[in-house]
Design brief:
single chain; 212 residues; alpha+beta; Pnp Oxidase, Chain A; nine-stranded antiparallel sheet; 9 strands; globular
Length: 212
């Protein structure tokens, strides 16, 4: 089995990435690629790996769903008492990575994380299916639980008591990543991949090509 997976190899050859074809605004460039991923009906095109670092310098990553983006940053929602929430409380910097293998493309975004305002958290929370709202309300996210039945019982008891009528928990809400770096990656043959990085210099976005 070890030898089998070592031989897994996909040759990238769909496209090339040229600086002259990139928009000067990385938010616009992200929107172009994201819309293209949606048009290609890539499953969970808004899925990304969010990486955080704890107060003792230990990194961790997990897959989340991007729920909004604009000219300020990229928004996701979670339990503020989760591991990622605790990490961000002590170290408010993180990275997001989107990978669309069907397009042989990847986008990496780094920046500072802030909580979104209460109105935005409320708006998204009440727009969720009731089952997802109940799950957010009852789950002691990232905490040890004794078994699955414990979680299922919490869910059932809460649903029977509240049905669909209950407020957003104070410990649940949104974050926004405010970027100071973007990297757009396009797979190329022989692993000589194209990488174009956007970085801030005197509050203006600049670009440079990186070696693969």
């Amino acid at each position: 089995m070890k030898e089998d997976f070592k031989k897994i190899r996909h040759e990238y050859n769909q496209k090339e990435l040229r600086k002259k074809d990139m928009h000067e605004d990385p938010f616009v460039q992200f929107e172009h690629w994201f819309k293209n991923a949606l048009e290609h009906q890539i499953p969970d095109a808004n899925a990304m790996t969010l990486s955080t670092v704890s107060k003792v310098g230990r990194p961790s990553g997990r897959i989340l769903l991007l729920k909004d983006f604009n000219e300020k940053g990229f928004c996701f929602f979670t339990n503020y008492k989760s591991r990622k929430g605790d990490d961000l409380k002590h170290n408010p910097y993180a990275s997001m990575v989107f990978f669309w293998p069907e397009l042989e493309q990847q986008i990496r975004i780094e920046g500072k994380i802030e909580k979104v305002d209460l109105a935005k958290s409320n708006e998204y929370f009440y727009d969720r299916p009731v089952g997802s709202r109940i799950a957010a309300a009852i789950s002691p996210q990232s905490q040890k639980i004794k078994n699955r039945a414990f979680l299922d019982n919490l869910y059932s008891d809460f649903k029977n008591k509240h049905e669909g009528d209950f407020p957003k928990p104070d410990f649940w809400g949104g974050y926004i990543l405010i970027p100071d770096l973007f990297e757009f990656w396009q797979g190329r043959s022989n692993r000589l991949n194209d990488r174009i990085e956007y970085f801030l210099e005197n509050s203006h976005w600049k670009t440079r090509r990186l070696a693969p």
